[in-house]
Amino acid sequence: MSVNATSKAAFLATRMAGRASPLFLRDAELERALELLLLAERGLAARSAAALRAARLDERDLDILWLLRRRPGITAHELASLLSLPKQSVSRHLRALEAGGLVLRGEHGTDRRRRVLRLSERGASLVESLAEPRKRGLRRAFQSAGAEAVAGFERVLGELAHSASPRLEEPAKG
Which residues on neighbouring strands pair with residue 15, listed in sequence order? Predict the structure, then answer.
């Protein structure tokens, strides 16, 4: 992410800080929120972009690895549904990740027709190293915004995620 885009995201966030607009459903406010989401995503991605390139992975690979970290035992079909991608696309990425020793396939405990996915030790270690710079950025932003703002942020993102994937369930804690 360029310095200019980072500066603009910081400017917009600062401008909005400390004041909730009673006109939050106006197009101007919604467009500002969409811009902030875009710039925030770009900013988080930039934090681990070099390491991702060094591992010869792309953002889609990281999305898959991250979801396998959070949801071990998920199937390829469930993964495709969560990511709103064709199963063929997810399968192509999974084959490459499996060949790279990052993903393992196994049998489902009760249904032998289903193949479940999980990270290998190497995959888990890689995901942690790629996620750490992003988590540092989120931690700083959360500390700056405060607990009430973080709770609101999680509610908004939860609503957006649920509307995109109504079958979305919280991953098992562990």
Answer: none
